[in-house]
């Protein structure tokens, strides 16, 4: 990778000798995020020592080597920035693709972006994002899309807005939900539910496309046998893995009305966080599939969330994060509910926009 200068700042691929600096940066980041309502960072010194050793092991093979185009190893990229010869910032990126059609972009997900407090305001953050945008488009094409999750209580939102990012999704944290009122019943999907689930899923994909999420292929015009099989396989896999790890849930909850019709589906995932976080359970509704135009389906989705929250609590979660498209009216309703708080935003910008916005004068 070419080394770049911007004032006294430099960005380059990570090296084995950066492990100690990275440990300090990670610790600063996760303690900062904990203070802003993010997931709780570990306060145990031993956990951080172990985390530092893990970073050393991960980077050892890069020690002193100059890897051409070295930002990426497989799907994972890692860039550091120096200010006057000292490592003051870092970002990781995970490059993936969720579609097959040529127009569907690769997605470069930024992770753990941090510039140490004393070095902020010198353009280092922008340089790091630029470097990742450049490396991602070199690898995955000009239409690569850069994504970042930003806590709702973080001024970094203005930083991303400045670089051309727009909000795609919201995550709302809920701790209470209205009880069922007996109108609906909700249970983990069984393989026999695959056809009904395919219909809900297909409609959810259509809505997502209509709402302008560029990350996925538009759905095919009709529901094919392939989709039904894919969904049945997913249910069978979730079934096979149920109860294998404490705190772990992967459940597609189907919400039925009194007549037994499937009106909504809620995908619930949870896991115990590993270092450097405190060992808490993070529970998330990763997708809600329900007809937003139909009040009965919306009520079913809310009933499903109530069930999801109970299930999350049963494995030790204290809150449930609910992910939805920014313009999804169900997501907006969840965000306005009693006791709900904005947790984070998922932002996106085409790599080409980031490169334009960070172009040197
Ligand atoms: C967000 C962060 C990486 C920005 O790094 P930085 O090196 O200070 O940012 P830059 O100097 O490159 O700023 C680039 C632009 O964003 C603006 N900006 C940066 N931080 C800002 C803030 N907190 N509020 C408003 N605007 C901000 C700058 O003014 C600059 O605009 P300009 O080009 O018009 O001058 C840094 O503040 C940080 O590490 N924060 C704590 C960790 C964190 O929140 N990371 C993000 C995780 S999603």
What does this structure look like?
With 361 residues, the chain is an alpha+beta fold. 34% of the residues lie in helices and 29% in strands. The protein is built from nine helices and 14 strands. Strands 1, 2, 3, 4, 5, 6, 7, 8, 9, 10, 11, 12, 13 and 14 form a 14-stranded mixed sheet that branches. Helix 1 crosses helix 2 (45-59) and helix 5 (194-210) crosses helix 6. The longest helix is centred in the last third of the chain and has 20 residues, at 295-314. The chain is globular and about 70 Å long. The relative contact order is 0.16. Bound molecules: coenzyme A. Residues 29, 32, 113-115, 120-126, 148, 150, 154-156, 158-159, 162 line the site of coenzyme A.
Give a quick precis of the structure.
By secondary structure, the protein is of the alpha+beta class. Strand 6, helix 3 and strand 7 form a beta-alpha-beta unit. The longest helix is centred in the C-terminal third of the chain and has 20 residues.
Descriptors for this entry?
9 helices; binds coenzyme A; 14 strands; Aminopeptidase; 361 residues; alpha+beta
Helix segment count? 9
The pLDDT mean sits at 93
What is the CATH topology classification name of the largest domain? Aminopeptidase
The domain tally reads 2
Helix percent band: 25-40%
What is the name of the CATH superfamily of the largest domain? Gcn5-related N-acetyltransferase (GNAT)
Shape label: globular
- If you compute it from the alpha carbons, what radius of gyration comes out, rounded to the nearest whole angstrom? 22 Å
Q: Count all strands and give the number.
A: 14
Reported for the largest beta sheet, the result is: 14 strands, mixed
Q: Per DSSP, what share of the residues sits in E-state strands of 2 or more residues? A: 25-35%
Helical/strand content category: alpha+beta
Bound molecules: coenzyme A
